[in-house]
Write a structure and sequence with these properties.
The complex is a heterodimer of chains A (about 160) and B (about 725). Chain A has about 160 residues and is of the alpha+beta class. Chain A has helices at about 65-75, 115, 145-155; strands at about 10, 15-20, 25-30, 30, 45, 50-55, 85-90, 95-100, 105-110, 120, 125-130, 135-140. Chain A has 2 domains: about 10-75, no CATH class; about 85-155, OB fold (Dihydrolipoamide Acetyltransferase, E2P) (Beta Barrel), CATH 2.40.50. Chain A is built from 3 helices and 12 strands. In chain A, the strands form 4 sheets. A 3-stranded antiparallel β-sheet of chain A has the order 1-2-3, covered by helices on one side. A 3-stranded antiparallel β-sheet of chain A has the order 4-5-6. The radius of gyration of chain A is 19 Å and the shape is elongated. In chain B, about 55% of the residues lie in helices and about 15% in strands. Chain B has helices at about 5-10, 95-110, 145-155, 160-195, 200-245, 250-255, 255-300, 300-310, 310-350, 350-355, 360-410, 420-465, 525-530, 555-560, 575-580, 590-595, 600-605, 625-640, 655-670, 705-710, 715-735, and strands at about 20-25, 35-40, 45-50, 50-60, 60-70, 75-80, 85-90, 485-495, 500-510, 515, 540-545, 545-550, 560-565, 640-645, 670-675, 690-695, 695-700. The mean pLDDT of chain B is about 85. The chains are: A alpha+beta (about 160), B alpha+beta (about 725). Chains A and B meet through α1, β8, β9 and α3 of A and β7, α9 and α12 of B.
């Protein structure tokens, strides 16, 4: 349905715009990941009426400049820090308090009901949703240092 | 809620236009954790990160300020001169704070004095800064376990007599249990070794008395405790239920009803379990362990030391064991849950599975989950087995040491009359069994206590929620009102900052009917919620017969309102009791008269058990139209001065609708009525129609006036509906 290099992305007036061959002029769009957890590389572009205008199955379908624009837009829209180290965990009254170091900096959050708020994408990869809805990702439990891993495994 | 701004931010604003509102975001423009400050003055909006200014916009140029909700966070955006500026990016933690700031910008931009909420339901504890388990909830880090215990203990105060009895009986039962080993010693040393045969009967009598006393007092302890534990929990449960009824609707909106049911039933049951079984076990065994320790030392401190030798091992081992076991218990719970889900899905969804021919897949999924449960069960039981064996070895070590050294001491001095004698050894042997047994469970009870305290804390956190102001002193108690309602520039948001009612003024004359029209999400239902005072407006006033409702007794206002909803709620009771739910003292004649007016009498009489038929959850199933007519009969009997019809006639067939129309016509007579309906035709009888869009009134007038308005919103909606009806009619014809 889409062929590579047909669409171009650009910034105009502080917004991401999409230009397709059959457009008269670039249109303002929002990039959306239809499968944010299981296939984050797939991106659809929707206009202000939520109409789906274009879809790509990977960033490699874009020219380098568009790609930079999209990467930046996605980084802003899809904020999910990756946990690299778990510095401490504490459980009090059924709430687990985490102090972590992520690829975006240090963070602390509270987790309740891990069975409900932790999505496992495979045996070693999970996404944690904290009590207010912030998400944190652990891409590979095996890559964590032993102390961090032990803290994680006591809770999850 | 806005703190004074930091000096660095204040310095960015000129002296004659100082920063008035400000907020700090937790993310930098490049997506890292860091601070961005957004300051708002009367004339401009400024965002800065470190020393860098990200945006500096004159308020006059801003066309729109809004919040973009995104995956894992949000951002505050201002559109100025056609260009979008991102002022701040922040995590979900700050959603409420920035929504409030966004509204401040919008208010200032439109020349209004900003409405600033006094406090927000923050996601972080104001005292220690750690994340809260729920927005606006208690901070478990600041609530100490001790305080929860004290609060639990306070629940016992009304029953202090029984508590005293409990303490007395358990102490006596422990003391009685301590007696027999001492008697064994005396029988061994005095009766057998010294041959005082005449004393034997006396000592045996003492043993029997001790056993009897121990069991009698233990029975009394359990007897009292069964009552006390159940009483305390029943009190808590009923406090919770009362509380749940009086909580603000805002709380109910935010929490699933299942969660509250869980707290009322599950958490209190957990607490009861602990209070009845755990706590007495712990106290009695603590007491007996301490007493035995003292007796052992007084009998022979050397042997006592040998007994105490494995104690640290038992306590530390027990602690480690439970720490290790805890995650496994969790896992077992989760896996049992997963298996339950698969099983119930397979059964409830059996048609879907069969029609999609996925039986094999379901079998595979079940087997997989089943194996996972099997694995965790096996390791749990194996750890248990290992634990008990190693604990037994530790205890056996103590016992063996006592017999070895005790035996040697007696052999060295067989005729000793004090210190270690044969009887001492016998007494030690009996005490050791009593002493070691409970020790290995102490860690388990601690674990149990943590769970119970968690439950208690959850229960208390509901009890601490604010309730509606039912009987504020100084409020006016309304008698039968005329039914004049006036909304005076009302603004309202469910989530602070996200306004859904944006300044509505409306006057409804007594006894007239007003229809509210508009797309879903326009604010119709919210307006009704405000009129019922399920919520209080952020600003503006609601006047009833000229009184501000905030100065009126809440129940006295609500009792004047009757609501008929699209899907009326029927209680699990007979039709008779359902109709007179609001006026339990109504006579049967009054009920029948109301049912007749509501066009419900006929169908009720056709039912086998007529007015005695039990409806609601688990009762006879009624059609939507029938349920509604029962609700209308209930409203007629309740005889409210103000009537609210919320989509009362949607989703019924034409025949039923006719009956419903008749019922409603009987109901609205002489009452102030506010009606919402998707079928615009049903609002034809309204004296006035009010068209809402995006939280504001866009049109107002009679049905005819609005229809005649060229290009009006209402005319457009009616045209659309006529078209849909025409298409439907055509389709029906074609099908026939």
């Amino acid at each position: 349905m889409t062929s590579p290099n047909t669409g171009r992305l650009l910034q105009r007036n502080g917004r991401l715009h999409l230009d397709l061959p059959d457009f008269e002029a670039p249109r303002p769009v929002r990039p959306l990941r239809p499968r944010p957890l299981t296939a984050p590389e797939v991106v659809v572009f929707v206009d202000d009426e939520d109409e789906d205008l274009w879809r790509i199955n990977g960033l490699d379908e874009l020219d380098p400049r568009s790609r930079v624009e999209l990467e930046q837009a996605l980084r802003e829209r899809y904020y999910m820090p990756r946990i690299e180290q778990v510095t401490s965990t504490r459980t009090l009254f059924g709430t687990h308090y985490w102090e972590v170091v992520t690829n975006r900096g240090p963070a602390s959050f509270a987790l309740r009901e891990p069975g409900k708020n932790v999505t496992w994408l495979n045996e070693h990869h999970c996404v944690i949703r904290d009590t207010v809805g912030n998400r944190f990702e652990m891409t590979d439990l095996r890559q964590l240092d032993p102390a961090s891993r032990k803290r994680v495994l006591t809770i999850l | 809620m806005f703190a004074p701004p930091p000096a660095s931010l204040a310095a960015c604003f000129p002296a004659d236009d100082p920063v008035r509102y400000w907020m700090e975001a937790d993310r930098t423009p490049d997506g890292h954790v860091g601070n961005v400050q957004v300051g708002v003055s009367a004339g401009r909006v400024l965002a800065r990160c470190g020393s860098e200014t990200l945006a500096d916009l004159p308020l006059a140029e801003i066309e729109e300020a809004r919040v973009d909700e995104m995956f894992g966070g949000s951002r505050l955006v201002a559109v100025a001169s056609g260009r979008t500026h991102v002022l701040a990016r922040y995590s979900r933690t700050l959603v409420g704070e920035f929504a409030a700031l966004c509204r401040v910008i919008e208010d200032l931009r439109e020349g209004r004095e900003p409405v600033v909420p006094d406090e927000l339901d923050t996601a972080r504890c104001a005292r220690c800064g750690s994340p809260l388990p729920e927005r606006g909830g208690n901070c478990p880090r600041c609530v100490s376990k001790r305080n929860v215990l004290i609060r639990l203990a306070r629940l016992l105060v009304p029953y202090r007599g029984r508590v005293a009895l409990l303490v007395l009986c358990s102490t006596l039962s422990v003391l009685a249990a301590m007696t027999p080993p001492l008697v064994y010693k005396n029988i061994t040393d005095r009766v057998i070794r010294e041959g005082l045969a005449s004393e034997l009967g006396w000592w045996i009598g003492l043993i029997l008395t001790a056993f009897l006393a121990e069991n009698l007092f233990r029975f009394l302890t359990n007897w009292t405790n069964a009552w006390l534990g159940a009483r305390v929990v029943a009190d808590l449960r009923s406090q919770l239920h009362t509380k749940a009824q009086r909580l603000r609707l805002l709380y109910h909106n935010r929490h699933e009803s299942g969660q509250l049911v869980g707290r009322v039933m599950h958490d209190t049951a957990e607490l009861q379990h602990f209070l009845i079984d755990g706590l007495p076990y712990f106290l009695v065994n603590m007491l007996s362990t301490a007493t035995i320790g003292i007796i052992l030392v007084s009998l022979s401190w050397k042997l006592a030391l040998l007994v105490f030798l494995p104690v640290p091992l038992l306590i530390v081992g027990g602690g480690l064991f439970w720490k290790h076991l805890h995650p496994l218990f969790h896992q077992r719970g989760n896996r049992v849950g997963a298996l339950h889900t698969i099983l119930s899905e397979s059964l409830r969804g059996v048609r879907a599975v069969k029609s999609l021919s996925q039986e094999d897949r379901r079998t595979r999924e079940f087997d997989h989950a089943n194996t996972r449960l099997f694995t965790v069960r096996t390791s749990l039981d194996r750890i248990f087995a290992g634990f008990f064996s190693s604990m037994s070895i530790a205890m056996a070590a103590g016992t063996t040491l006592v017999w070895y050294f005790g035996g040697r001491a007696i052999l060295a001095n067989p005729s000793a009359t004090e210190g270690i004698q044969l009887g001492t050894l016998v007494a030690f042997a009996s005490y050791m069994a009593l002493f070691y047994g409970p020790l290995q469970w102490f860690a388990a009870v601690f674990n149990w206590a943590t769970h119970a305290l968690t439950s208690a804390e959850r229960v208390f956190s509901v009890l601490d929620q604010p309730v509606e102001d039912y009987d504020l002193p100084g409020t006016i108690r309304l008698e039968r009102i005329r039914g004049e309602i006036e909304l005076d520039n009302i603004r309202f948001s469910y989530q602070r900052g996200k306004e859904v009612i944006k300044g509505i003024s409306l006057r409804i004359e007594p006894g007239t009917m007003v229809g509210l029209v508009g797309r879903s999400g326009a604010g119709k239902s919210t307006l009704i919620n405000l009129i019922c005072r399920f919520y209080d407006p952020d600003s503006g006033r609601l006047l009833v017969d000229g009184h501000d409702v905030r100065e009126v007794n809440l129940s006295s206002w609500r009792s004047q309102i009757g609501i008929v909803m699209q899907d009326p709620f029927l209680f699990n009771a007979s039709i008779l009791d359902n109709i007179r739910y609001g006026r339990p003292d109504a006579t049967f004649d009054e009920v029948v008269a109301a049912a007749k007016k509501a066009q419900a009498h006929k169908f009720i009489c056709k039912m086998e058990e007529a007015y005695d038929s039990v409806v609601g959850d688990g009762g006879v199933s009624l059609s939507g139209g029938e349920r509604q007519r029962i609700a209308i009969a209930r409203a007629i009997l309740h005889d409210p001065r103000v009537l609210i019809l919320d989509e009362a006639t949607s989703a019924v067939d034409s025949e039923t609708e006719k009956a419903l129309q008749l019922a409603i016509a009987a109901l609205i007579e002489g009452r102030t009525t506010i009606a919402i309906a998707h079928r615009l035709a049903t609002l034809r009888n309204a004296d006035r129609l009010v068209v809402l869009e995006d939280g504001q009134i866009v049109e107002e007038g009679t049905h005819e006036e609005l229809l005649a308005r060229e290009g009006g919103q209402f005319a457009r909606l009616v045209a659309l509906q006529t078209e849909i009806n025409r298409l439907r009619a055509e389709q029906n014809l074609w099908q026939e």
